Here is the input.
Amino acid sequence: MGYRIATDTSANLPTPWLTEHDITVIPFIYIVEGKELTCLDTEAFDGHAYYESMREGAHPTTSQITPDKYEEIFRPILEREEDILFIGMSSGISSSFSSAQVAAEELKEAYPHRRILLIDTLGASLGEGIPVMKAAERKEQGADLDTVYGEITAMCRRMCQVFMVDDLMHLRRTGRLSNAAAVIGTVLRIKPLLKGNEQGKIVSTDKIRTRKKAIAALAEKYRSWVVNAKDQIVGIAHADCAQEAEELAGMLREAAEPREILTVCYEPVTGAHVGPGTIALFFESDEGVRSS
Here is the structure.
């Protein structure tokens, strides 16, 4: 009966696109003033208000998704006699992917004739979302489950994810970066460039003094590392700094015009970790880019 593509809200994809391509989405949870919230509709998310509240001292937190939640969403798909290709957030920055693995093993016992294939994108935001978009494109072209699984797994190893944050303390507070690195960044008032490594963890790659120079450095990483730009979708995610994101897009077009540039505001779960003022860039490079 075919297969269905599923992802989670960390993929940061526009709601109209998800609806058009019939993608199942697992809602991640963020907590503001003790209230649990989800953001399944990116069109309704007020990014400016959310990130402005963080600038004013709010500290939203996030919660791991349990295996039960994955089972709840996967089970009806299997009962419709569809297989599942789940493309999820990096296991290097969240334990939610392990919950998906637990759920998949449980469901395989209940539905032995169905298949659940899981892809750890080693990424978040559009580092996860662009592989979802590619998977949907290949499925609509008629590619079978195994073919898409193999292609997207390989693609994730080639995804370059490089970003700058305005304040490392958000990553330190939520445990996504070491305390020592965060303190150094704050004291020196640098604008560090960070990247996703081969385990999908966040590591520092450069330390730059101003936002303007840091944005230019993102564009230079793209110029140096992008492969076959004209054939790919390039992603930019920002945390309430749309004008600078558009400036970065212009630099990318000058360096190597891609097929498309998709610009989004960081959804609230990943945004709680990177903080306001973050700008991230996502594109395909060579397979060794994560370790370079």
About this structure: The mean pLDDT is 92. Residues 158-291 form a domain with the Hypothetical Protein Tm841; Chain: A;domain 3 fold (CATH 3.30.1180.10). The chain has eleven helices and 13 strands.
